[in-house]
Amino acid sequence: MLIKCQHTFKHNEPSGSDHWNVQREIMFALTRTLFNICSMLGAEKNTRQRRHEKTKRYILSEAKKLIRKNGVDKFSLRGLAAACDYSPAALYEYFSNKEALLATIAKQIELDLREYLVSESAELDDLIKLGAQYIAFAKNQPEDYLLLFMSFSSGRKSESDVLPENSAYMVLVNLITELVNSGQIVLESEVGVEEISYNYWVLLHGHVMMQLTMLRDYKADFESIESRMLSRFVASLTE
């Protein structure tokens, strides 16, 4: 009887190749299980991230509305929380303080402006195009433009302060620097690159501010005026 049982056990015991196949199937099953768990966790994380970003965009949108209505000096996280129907503490999940939120708004708008200011090369015509792009941004996104320039400071205290690389103004400074270096713009001895950049920026800003405020209902061929204005300014840099 014992001999028969031993014979039966040996007969049912998997061979070397069968044993490897069983091990392999187990490993495959474990791998699939781990992959499914990781996929579910990744999907859950992505969902949370999308929900977080969506809520953050909503908070920023409501914040901009309040700043336009009451001004940046009267803006508070408590007032924003009430407008969003959140508790004040809930906002700290997205922004560490009021200053961080305001800095995010300013940076966001300036990055949008920077994306408008595209320069594919460094020719005098590119300087004219950049001016037209600046004006286009102000006309296409007037609320953001006014919010940026009427509610926030650049943070610079003097010309010696380094310009942030992501600054929209830096795009203009870089282009004029290239035009000077290539000899297309010749500076007078007492005039620097930033003075020319500042003069051009002020020209553009003053022009669009007039259209967005005092002359917003005024009917005129501003596009033709802008074209002549930009061309005359750039031409004056070569004389």
List the helices and strands and how they pair.
Elements: H1 2-12, H2 16-70, H3 77-84, H4 88-91, H5 98-116, H6 124-140, H7 142-151, H8 168-181, H9 193-212, H10 222-236
Helix pairs in contact: 2-3, 5-7, 6-7, 6-8, 6-9, 6-10, 8-9
What labels would you give this structure?
Arc Repressor Mutant, subunit A; 2 domains; 10 helices; Tetracycline Repressor, domain 2; mainly alpha; single chain
Walk me through what this model shows:
By secondary structure, this protein is mostly helical. The chain folds into two domains: 19-95, Arc Repressor Mutant, subunit A; 106-236, Orthogonal Bundle (Tetracycline Repressor, domain 2). 72% of the residues lie in helices and 0% in strands. The chain has ten helices and no strands. The longest helix is centred in the first third of the chain and has 55 residues, at 16-70. The radius of gyration is 32 Å and the shape is extended. Residues 1-10 have low confidence and may be disordered.
